[in-house]
Amino acid sequence: RGLERLDEVMPTARRVLGPDHPDIAYLEVMRGRQLRFLGRADEAEISYREALRIERQVRGPDHPYVGYALIQLGVIQAQGGRLAEAERSYREALRIYRTAYPEGDRNVANTLGKLAELALLRDRPEEAVRLSRQSRALFGRLFPDDHPELLEGEVLIAISLAAAGRADEARPLLEGLLPRVVAVAGENSSAVHRIRQVLDTLPSSDVA
Question: Which pLDDT score, from 0 to 100, does residue 205 have?
Answer without folding.
Answer: 65
